[in-house]
Design brief:
The protein is mainly α. The protein contains 34 helices and no strands. Among the domains are: about 250 residues, Serine Threonine Protein Phosphatase 5, Tetratricopeptide repeat (Alpha Horseshoe), CATH 1.25.40.180; about 140 residues, Serine Threonine Protein Phosphatase 5, Tetratricopeptide repeat (Alpha Horseshoe); about 55 residues, no CATH class.
Amino acid sequence: MDFSGRLGGSHGSGARRDVDEFGRERRNRPHHRKPYERPTRGFRGGRPSMGGRGGPPDEAKEIESRLSSLIIKVGDKNTPTLQNNLDALSVVLEKDFTKHEATVLKTLRQCVLELPWKVTVYSTLAGLLNAKNSETGAKVVALMHAVLRRELSAGNWGSVKVLVRFFALLVDANAISATMLLAILDAFLKPVVSDNGAEIVVSAQNSCYVFIVASALLWGGRALKQHAPEELAARLQTIERYVQRHSELNQDNALAAVFHDAQPKGTNILAYQLGVLREVAEAEWKIDAVFVPNGMFASELGQATQHEVPALELPTGLRSDSYYTPCEFLQLVPSPAELAVRRYVLQDLIADTISQLEGNRKDCAKYLMQVHGLCGEDVCSIMTAAQHPEDVDPETSLVFEYMMVEVLFTSLMQLPEGPYREMYYSSLAIELRKAEPQILANVFETAVENIVARISSFDVECINRLSNWLAVYLGNFGFQWDWTKWEGAAEEAESSPRRRFVEETLLKLIRLSYLDRIKTQLPESCLSLVPSKTPAHNFKFTVQSMDERTREVSVAMGRCLKNKGTADQAMEILQTHYSQWSDIDEETRQGLAREMLVEHVLLLGSKTFSHMLNAIEKFMPALQRFGDSPEAKLQIAKVVEDFWLKNPQFCAITIDKLVNYRVIDPTTVVAMLFDASHVGRWCMFHLWEILRNTVNKVNMRVVQLQGRLNAAQAAANAIVVDDAEPSDPQQQQKQQGESVEHVESVLEQMLLEQREVVVLTTQRFVQLLSASDGTADELDRAWLMGRFKEFMRSYRVQIVANAQALENQVFTADASQDTRQVFENTRMLST
């Protein structure tokens, strides 16, 4: 009997198809090929397709694939064959450009954007294409200028910085004139100087623009010095004036300082960058850190045609916090001061690579390990190539791996906020360590140890970020770490920065694994830093702790919930029992009933997160009925906190869901967090995790409602007439108008709630920091002040929007001077 039809096999006789046990055709893939290893992986614009799945690619696709591969791989290393490779590639591309123009231009565009450390190579290649055929060169220049305009409109400042650098190098490649470059730079510098030219206008937008111009001058200064020296001097003078004015306005702003014992420099690297520019100018604008191949083709490029580009229009109407200016690179490992220019150039290219390949951690890790390929001779030491990595001394030379890790941590710790999600840096570090397991394991460990050695001056928010990063990083490598170096933390005060960092990191590791597994990794001296028992709930109504009549209520509630009773049945039980307690007033009875219900609902859902969500959803009507006043909501929140006192993770999740279901309000959470019972415990991380989650939820709702309002307004303005089914335009407009009015009403309420949360949180911070009994000691106050700075930085847009209300209600004569200073610094960050 033939069962092939039933099981999905081929019918009839003939050759058997290669299928699996489910009748599916097997995919022709080598055993070692991963699903994510596709030809288009890593380039946002996509590399040219390798052909369809059904058969071999045609000749045109094969040629396009080969051209794309040649462009991507050229200049990976500074080798003696680089000149020949570039020349040969330019000949091939010029020959095939007519047939494969789209492929060549698209690949070149993506290479410039996503391989920024090879921008000197691609500018030379563009110059060679221009020298061989001016029409081809014109198309390359026009494309890149169009990409620059697009990235400007989108506010992608990392890409804008790379593209302006590319145009600066095109001057040396003779593809555009010095005048054209100056026009591009002047578009950025125009808002920096007032209309009469007498004053410098300092703002987040202009700091971003100055940073981009200074980055371009670092690479284009040599050509401008040769062709337009006076104009170059004028632009440098504008940058110097801006940096000086910016330093005057931000000299006391320490809100963006990662290390408090470092000299505060605001939110940017402008002063340091200016110093680098001056040193490069003294060296006749020669950069020896990275090889620039333009000089090898000086005679050929000198005969090329220069092209003009349209004027740039900068975007308007962007929020101040949408502009990007990176902070100064952290120096976690000492390096020679005389190598500061080389260090900056290399770390700048590393930072651009991390930024531009943010969407693909695997390709980012791969290309980061190649950044040193274009370094000049003896520019930096490479531990991967060293016979004995431990012999490489970072104090006598630049060590590439240490610089790379410093840039990663700089971006992770950037204030007032990091450019990307924290998980990106953890996943990138994991991929880097996989590439060089032994060497980078030691490098990361050294960097973290050097930070922890200075942790008493480390910003509180950055301590939080480092703890999150380290927990995820260790979780991917068997939780292996040399904890003996930090065993002294167990003997420190409970609120000391080092002890809190180690304890919070271990708590996160327990979340990622389990308690006994983490205990096996710790030396005996560190066991006191982890809980003695697995985190569990703290149910109040145990048999031993109750009197007779309370036990009756608790047992009845327990049976009701265990037998899948409803919310109405639970309410009836509470009403029946507590109505008989005549010795207490109604308000007290309501409080006892509320506490009994919440405790049993939490106990019902205490097994897993899913159980908790189901329990809250099932008894939500009863919980909402009991939460009929601010005092009642606050009692519910406090019961939740007490129930999960030994399990901060469950506490945070439960509070979050109660806010979602409107059992409690965001202001309830604020009141609960700043309760007097937390004095002396401001160092606990989970308190501020709950606060961030709550405020972020409110802000997210505002953004969502604003989007709904925009959509409703667009629908109301668009009159669609359907000839097949005519409708009453007045009725349609009325319905759309009512919809807009409804969304506007809801948005107005949410904006009011957002304002209330921001003002109340700021008020509670200031009250505690200004009162003698708001903190337990100096360490406790330092933690609270650190969280206050974090809150003001993170929500500076909302703080500035409500500045008048804060001045009238919060920052009165009773507010301490240091809280006032934080408020002023926050306003400066937002200008």
